[in-house]
Write a structure and sequence with these properties.
This protein has 803 residues and is α/β, with parallel strands linked by helices. The chain is built from 25 helices and 29 strands. The protein starts with a helix and ends with a helix.
Length: 803
């Protein structure tokens, strides 16, 4: 493959201070101004001086006030002149940015494929600091100790693989039991002004500490790990103005559950959500993290907050005082961590915290938002279950000390009146630090005394790792959780379980009633003596008065691990859990011809495309996990789930037909409706279709992360110019591209013309749109982004060898 001088130039720009074989915290320019920290904090502190220098260049070109999100994002651009000059200020929603992120975080399920791809690039270490977090593969059932032991036994091969990758490439390894990726990132790595990528859709949690943290697929993470510029279309900026102050039963979770109802699951697509206004200063750092975390559910690129006193308090409480001082200095002297006066947003939504009431969202979608005062009526109107079957709190969204202390205040009230929960109550600490601290401060005893089951420091039921045994599959029931996502069958594998999302405070109050219509703001409970009483609004501390406890120190990896080149990464050729990757074939250089394997009806999330739960064990084995591809999808033509039909009318499971057509050398396409690929960042939803012979996904609209993942794997993602054309195409129809080559060779407009021939002989010419950048075109030609990056790396390495 030919490597253009332009792309080599950009690669050198991204690597000019870290050639192959070296690493650093994404130093970008000179350090003419000092915001120094002790050596042990250096890899965890953004290079503020260099970022300010870069930002000055951006300001010279754009000559306008900037939002906070723009400041952080644009100061991480590789070459401001190339990115912004000559664009007449048309940046947001128009210009592709080449960025140098500061850090990468990977959870264990997605890290497997990310690292398998990274290994093909031939590097000795990562170009930026990175971390691996073992949190997704731990099943919740019997409680922390038993569950952790059982999960380590079952997943030892994967954990050993990830640990060995950490040793070989100098990546921090946070083992099983250490905690959930997003909580650990908040406690250790997220800092104001940071730009990081994470292989999980809820990576924006780090925005609670003023970072720009973006969820991506593994191939995107490899960009940053190899020092290759990471590309993103400049997001528009949605400003959310917060006024007033939360009170009573309202909590930070209600800000985002309310906002999800306003925006819907795709209303934030293409935007960064930036919060501002006097209400911001009243929120805790962890409360802001909760809000940013669930911003993923509206499709936003990420969410962030300006620097506040609560951020400084949290940094100091988590043993990062030098970073807090540096952040305060850069903000006080240069205003880097807040929006400029006069900065304009593309859209503004205002929320009065003082009048915001608790909200409950669901079932089956996180944007069906109902104020608590109207929820009882909604239960009756929609024939939702009238009785609660379980309450679950914790997860990466709501497991902070403040959350747990407020919940403990409710449980204590109930205990004083002799009241026990009416339903099972599960609690998931977000990290070993949180677990140790709530145990030290007596909260764990309070929870256990109420009959709660404390699960391992892991994702557990939130992502489907819940071995539930109090219901049967198909049994209609309702659960209340403080989680962030509630797609059908997501939590316990039962498609009839209705998960309603709300704050941990409301979950806890309602377990004492068991009635889905219970409203603690006005309804009464009956105590042990038969007397009526009302729960008082919860109270709690923002931070632990006695400080955070670190807990088991064996979980703590070295702060700045060095790569050990002699370390061996073993992948058995007979393993059914892990398999080395073979590169996808490059583009053949001719117009595509394929057949429609499936028309998908309605919502099709990454849970539908690449189910989690029991399938998580195959995350490192592409062939095996591909057997779940689109098994949750509904066939638009028949209404059946996991059913597709061959040319002769024979029915197959969807992956079975994919495998058959692949063996016959028949490329295929899938048609879908709106927001295709909503939800998780899981790139298997793109890898598996590509592996099984898929060449095109044609839909009405995409979720951002999934569209990017498809581009990275060499799948052509297209959207209808006229959505009504979806109805013109039938299953097994032949599709030909008419001007794909022209687009690829000349980077022409974003329109690609298709010729559709249905089995009945009817023909249609359909206009579609693509959003591929110049680099993404190169990915497509090379067969995948990893193929392309590997080619660049080999070429660069050959040049360096000649010097």
């Amino acid at each position: 493959m030919t490597v253009s001088s332009r792309n080599l130039h950009l690669l050198r720009l991204s690597l000019r201070v870290r050639p192959i074989g070296t690493r650093g915290f994404a130093s970008h320019s000179s350090e003419s101004i000092s915001f120094s920290v002790p050596p042990e904090f250096k890899t965890r502190t953004p290079p503020y001086a260099a970022l300010l220098t870069r930002l000055d260049k951006v300001r010279e070109i754009l000559n306008r006030p900037l939002t906070l999100a723009e400041k952080i994002l644009y100061s991480h651009v590789v070459d401001p002149e190339e990115a912004f000059a000559g664009k007449n200020g048309q940046i947001r929603g128009e210009t592709y940015l080449k960025l140098n992120p500061d850090r990468v975080a990977m959870q264990d399920a997605s890290a497997q494929m990310a690292l398998l791809q990274f290994m093909t690039c031939g590097m000795d270490s990562t170009a930026v600091p990175a971390s691996i977090h073992c949190d997704h593969l731990i099943v919740g059932h019997d409680g922390a100790e038993k569950d952790l032991k059982a999960s380590i036994e079952v997943n030892s091969e994967v954990f050993d693989f990830l640990r060995s990758c950490g040793r070989k490439y100098g990546i921090q390894f946070w083992g099983p039991g250490s905690g959930i990726i997003h909580q650990i990132v908040l406690e250790n790595f997220s800092v104001p002004g940071l730009m990081m990528l994470g292989t999980d859709s809820h990576t924006p949690n780090a925005g609670g500490l003023g970072a720009i943290a973006i969820g991506v697929g593994g191939a995107d993470a490899v960009d940053a790990l190899t020092g290759t510029p990471w590309e993103l279309k400049a997001p528009r900026i949605l400003g959310v103005k917060l006024t007033g102050q939360l009170n009573g039963w309202s909590a930070p979770k209600d800000v985002i559950t309310h906002l999800a109802g306003v925006l819907t699951v795709r209303g934030g697509t293409g935007y960064i959500i930036e919060y501002f206004g006097e209400g911001v200063q009243t929120l805790s750092c962890t409360g802001m993290a909760t809000i940013c975390n669930m911003g993923a559910e509206v499709g936003a690129t990420t969410s962030t907050f300006p620097y506040t006193d609560s951020m400084k308090r949290y940094l100091m409480a988590t043993r990062r005082e030098p970073i807090a001082n540096a952040a305060s200095a850069v903000n006080n002297l240069h205003g880097y961590l807040r929006a400029d006066a006069g900065a304009e947003y593309d859209q503004v939504i205002e929320i009065n915290l003082s009048s915001l009431e608790p909200h409950i969202n669901g079932p089956f979608t996180p944007d069906l938002s109902t104020p608590l005062s109207q929820f009882g009526e909604a239960v009756q109107k929609n024939s939702w279950p009238s009785k609660l079957s379980a309450g679950l709190i914790g997860s990466c969204t709501n497991s902070s000390y403040q959350d747990m202390s407020r919940v403990a205040s409710i449980v204590r009230q109930a205990k004083e009146r002799g009241v026990k929960p009416k339903v099972p109550f599960f609690i998931t600490p977000g990290s070993e630090q949180i677990r140790a601290t709530i145990e030290n401060d007596g909260f764990t005893d309070v929870f256990l005394g109420a009959g709660a089951k404390v699960l391992a420091n892991a994702c557990g039921p939130c992502i489907g790792q819940w071995a539930r045994d109090d219901t049967t599959k198909g049994e209609v029931n309702a659960i209340l959780t403080s989680f962030n996502r509630n797609f059908r069958a997501r939590n316990d594998g039962n498609p009839a379980t209705m998960n309603f999302l709300t704050s941990p405070e409301i979950v806890t109050a309602m377990i004492y009633s068991g009635d889905m219509a219970f409203n603690p703001l006005k309804d009464k409970l009956i105590d042990a003596n038969g007397n009526e009483f009302m729960l008082e609004p919860p109270q709690g501390d923002e931070l632990p008065p006695s400080g955070f406890q670190q807990g088991d120190l064996e979980y703590l990896p070295p702060i700045d691990p060095k790569p050990i080149q002699s370390a061996e990464v073993v992948v058995s050729s007979t393993s059914d859990r892990l398999a080395l990757l073979e590169p996808f074939e490059p583009f053949e250089g001719r117009e595509l011809k394929m057949n429609v394997l499936l028309k998908v009806k309605g919502k099709c999330t990454t849970d539908h495309i690449s189910a989690a739960g029991a399938w998580l064990k195959y995350k490192g084995h592409l062939e095996n996990i591909s057997n779940n591809t689109l098994i949750g999808a509904v066939n638009e033509e028949t209404g059946e789930v996991n059913k597709a039909y061959d040319f002769d009318g024979a029915g197959y499971g969807i992956p079975e037909l994919m495998i058959k057509w692949k063996s016959e050398g028949r490329p295929w396409a899938v048609l879908a409706e709106h927001n295709y690929g909503e939800g998780s960042a899981r790139e298997h939803a793109a890898l598996s279709p590509r592996f099984l012979g898929g060449r095109m996904i044609l839909c009405k609209s995409f979720a951002r992360i999934h569209e990017t993942n498809l581009k990275k794997q060499g799948v052509l993602p297209l959207t209808f110019v006229d959505e009504a054309d979806y109805d013109l195409v039938n299953g097994c129809a032949n599709i030909e591209t008419l001007d794909l080559l022209q687009m690829l060779n000349n980077s022409v407009s974003g329109v690609i013309t298709l010729k559709v021939t249905n089995q009945d002989g009817s023909e249609h010419i359909i206009k579609t749109k693509h959003t591929m950048s110049k680099d993404q075109v190169e990915f497509f030609k090379a067969g995948s982004a990893i193929n392309y990056i590997g080619s660049l790396r080999r070429h660069q390495h050959a040049q360096e060898q000649q010097i």
